[in-house]
Write a structure and sequence with these properties.
Keywords: NAD, Oxidoreductase. GO terms for molecular function: glycerol-3-phosphate dehydrogenase (NAD+) activity; NAD binding. The structure is a single chain. The protein has 333 residues and is α/β, with parallel strands linked by helices. Helix content is 46%, strand content 10%. Helix 6 crosses helix 11 and helix 6 packs across helix 12.
């Protein structure tokens, strides 16, 4: 108890590179903030390392994730736990840092296992924070700014600035859709089309992200796309993210090697987000009859599944949509 209030207990669900970075960041703050318990449990999807040792045991013994974040100490108050239920036991703040395709299955396992009133947050990936380079992030909230501010306090450091905006849907969609645009950027790199073409793809991608988000959720705010979760994260992901890197390799191989094959070869256990997200977005576009309105988002999926060649990433521009028909006269250019 602290001043008559129960302390907040944080659990991190996920232990890849960003999950490990997040655990390190959070543990540093919980050790200093009196309103939080020191200990941070990090759920680990158990793996057997080449040494024969379990990943969770290795993390706890060395205080670092030798597979996904080697050379970076996590903090003595980070405890790796391969048991999901035990990792979240008694926690009232859950931080989800797993590939989005696994979240549903994890949440189903947690039904009935959490404290009443438990809060959760999902994170966008980022590596610069691990070595304490200046970075920033955005937390979206709906109505309760006090809760958002508590989360911001948990993550904020002098080198990691956290802002809060009243737009959950906008922040979430930015974090999701930027991975699809990063696939497009990587294809351009793999085709050696140059920075001007890549910049054009990023601009068009941001335009489609904004239009798609506002069609899907009319409450999405324009200003959200100018926060760090919007244009800044899009630029970062298109310049150096894993989606861009694997897409570049895909294009250099003429689309003859699948994304699954390249992912396994290049990422060593980490997962792409852009390919699966592109599929999900395409399903929404097809269901709602919006494919012609979003040629870039549609084309990325069609290239990923081999329906179109990588060169189609620029050919689609011959069919520029008239987005002014969306929402009456409100064009999202």
């Amino acid at each position: 108890m602290e001043n008559g209030h129960a302390k907040n207990l944080v659990a991190v669900i996920g232990s890849g590179n960003w999950g490990s970075v997040a655990s390190r960041l959070i543990a540093s703050n919980t050790a200093k903030l009196p309103s939080f318990h020191d200990e941070v449990r990090m759920w680990v999807f158990e793996e057997i390392l080449p040494t024969g040792k379990k990943l969770s045991e290795s993390i706890n013994q060395a205080n670092e994730n030798c597979k996904y974040l080697p050379g970076i100490k996590l903090g003595a108050n980070v405890i790796a736990d391969p048991d999901l239920e035990n990792a979240v036991k008694d926690a009232n703040m859950l931080v989800f840092v797993t590939p989005h395709q696994f979240v549903e299955g994890i949440c189903k396992k947690l039904v009935g296992k959490l404290r009443p009133g438990t809060e959760g947050i999902s994170l966008i990936k980022g590596m610069e924070i691990a070595v304490e380079k200046f970075s920033e992030a955005t937390i979206g909230y709906k109505k309760d700014k006090e809760v958002a501010t508590r989360w911001a306090k948990l993550f904020a450091t002098p080198y990691f600035l956290v802002s809060v905006v009243e737009d959950i849907e906008g922040v979430e969609l930015c974090g999701t859709l930027k991975n699809v645009v990063a696939i497009a950027a990587g294809l351009v790199d793999g085709l050696d089309m140059g920075n001007n073409t890549k910049a054009a793809i990023m601009r068009i991608g941001l335009r489609e992200m904004r239009a798609f988000s506002k069609l899907l959720s009319p409450t999405v705010r324009d200003n959200t796309f100018f926060e760090s979760c919007g244009v800044a994260d899009l630029i970062t992901t298109c310049l150096g993210g894993r989606n861009r890197r694997v897409a570049e390799a895909f294009a250099r191989n003429g689309g003859k090697r699948s994304f699954d094959e390249l992912e396994a070869e290049m990422l060593h256990g980490q997962k792409l987000q852009g390919v699966s997200t592109a599929k999900e977005v395409y399903e929404v576009l097809t269901y709602r009859g919006w494919q012609e309105l979003f040629p870039l988002l549609s084309t990325v999926h069609e290239i990923c599944i081999g329906q179109l060649p990588p060169t189609s990433i620029v050919e689609y521009s011959e069919h520029t949509p008239n987005l002014s028909i969306i929402n009456g006269s409100n064009a999202y250019y």
